[in-house]
């Protein structure tokens, strides 16, 4: 040993962590809500729940990450949108039950803290929270030298929301005749990237800077497209029409996730002919020779969220969503169940 050993000698730079906090402070402040107490730097984020607004409040919570989509951000050295993906994956699970996302905390593990990179990631998370209407009230950045390479990182988030008990959405509200309203995805979102990376990089040998005519942009730009944040649109929709359930289309695909909100005695019939999946899904299927059933189980196929609404409100729901910038259409209906499937796809894609 040639001299005193410090935490920095072991690879953990406390000063860099503090610098990252200072760089992210302004971005985090933009996501605040009036109920937030204090600011960054506390041991816990504080949120004053105004109980006078609710009769029988139920808290909803969700946690998630963005999976191996992080590898794309690292390869491109672009870290400003991965936080949007994180927020979307978390808050759009909360809104499924009708909950309003209130606040979110994040966790970032990295091999080496680069303050500017961490601040950029957190700025994306804060922007996602601002879009979703929830506050980013705290988080943790952990430096793990020896466990992660210097340029490696992963992130996760957890959020809490609230909904009146008698306003909870779910299978108990769904009935025969309900319409299945589809909301378009912005692309792959943050699911299936292990499959997608294997096909494009290992099997096809494509590079991220490859321009793909079918996509109208580079492969990297397509794969890093942020996940749509549906939560504020869903909350406005349920205030305007008779929504019975939402389904967030993530791992497990369209049929698998819709089935989670369908009662045992019913089935949701979804017509593939009502939409055309974006080109990225066709490319994945063709380059990887992926069977359609597997493709539909792993990827969202162009639908990121589903609303199940009372049939008389279907057209109004579509109109309202389209007016807010979310492309929507009636993709199917709920009917009495005559087979083993709680939800299934029929027809062929346009």
UniProtKB/TrEMBL annotation:
GO cellular component: cytosol
Principal place of residence: cytoplasm
Domain PurM-like C-terminal: 176-339
Pathways per UniProt: Purine metabolism; IMP biosynthesis via de novo pathway; 5-amino-1-(5-phospho-D-ribosyl)imidazole from N(2)-formyl-N(1)-(5-phospho-D-ribosyl)glycinamide: step 2/2
Coiled-coil features, chain-numbered ranges: none
Keywords, sorted A to Z: ATP-binding, Cytoplasm, Ligase, Nucleotide-binding, Purine biosynthesis
InterPro entries named in the record: PurM-like_C_dom (IPR010918), PurM-like_C_sf (IPR036676), PurM-like_N (IPR016188), PurM-like_N_sf (IPR036921), PurM_cligase (IPR004733)
SUPFAM superfamilies: PurM C-terminal domain-like, PurM N-terminal domain-like
Reactions that this protein is recorded to catalyse: 2-formamido-N(1)-(5-O-phospho-beta-D-ribosyl)acetamidine + ATP = 5-amino-1-(5-phospho-beta-D-ribosyl)imidazole + ADP + phosphate + H(+)
Keyword Transcription applies: no
Family per record: Belongs to the AIR synthase family.
HAMAP family: AIRS (MF_00741)
Protein name as it appears in the record: Phosphoribosylformylglycinamidine cyclo-ligase
Organism: Acidothermus cellulolyticus (strain ATCC 43068 / DSM 8971 / 11B)
């Amino acid at each position: 040993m040639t001299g005193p050993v410090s935490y920095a000698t072991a690879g953990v730079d406390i000063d860099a962590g503090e610098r990252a906090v200072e760089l992210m402070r302004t971005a985090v402040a933009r996501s605040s809500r009036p109920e937030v107490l204090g600011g960054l730097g506390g041991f816990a984020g504080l949120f004053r729940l105004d109980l006078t607004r609710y009769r029988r409040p139920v808290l909803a919570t969700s946690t998630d990450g963005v999976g191996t989509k992080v590898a794309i951000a690292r390869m491109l050295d672009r870290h400003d949108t991965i936080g949007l993906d994180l927020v979307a994956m978390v808050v759009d699970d909360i809104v499924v039950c009708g909950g309003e996302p209130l606040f979110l905390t994040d966790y970032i593990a990295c091999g080496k803290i680069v303050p500017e990179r961490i601040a950029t990631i957190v700025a994306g998370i804060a922007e996602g929270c601002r879009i979703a209407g929830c506050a980013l009230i705290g988080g943790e950045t952990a430096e793990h030298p020896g466990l992660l390479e210097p340029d490696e990182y992963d992130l996760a988030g957890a959020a809490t929301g609230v909904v009146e008990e008698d306003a909870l959405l779910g299978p108990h509200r769904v009935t025969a005749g309900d319409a299945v309203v589809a909301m378009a995805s912005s692309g792959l979102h943050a699911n299936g990237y292990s499959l997608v990376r294997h096909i494009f990089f290992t099997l096809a040998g494509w590079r991220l800077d490859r321009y793909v005519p079918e996509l109208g942009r580079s492969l990297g730009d397509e794969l890093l497209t942020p996940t749509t944040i549906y939560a504020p649109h869903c909350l406005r929709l349920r205030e305007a029409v008779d929504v019975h359930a939402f389904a967030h289309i993530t791992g497990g695909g369209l049929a698998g996730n819709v089935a989670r909100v369908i009662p045992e005695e019913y089935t949701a019939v979804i017509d593939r002919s009502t939409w055309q999946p974006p080109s990225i899904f066709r490319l994945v299927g063709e380059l990887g020779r992926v069977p359609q059933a597997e493709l539909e189980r792993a990827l969202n196929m162009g639908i990121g969220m589903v609303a199940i609404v009372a049939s008389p409100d279907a057209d109004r729901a579509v109109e309202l969503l389209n007016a807010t910038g979310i492309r929507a259409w009636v993709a199917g209906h709920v009917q009495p169940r005559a087979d083993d499937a709680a939800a299934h796809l029929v027809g062929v894609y346009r």
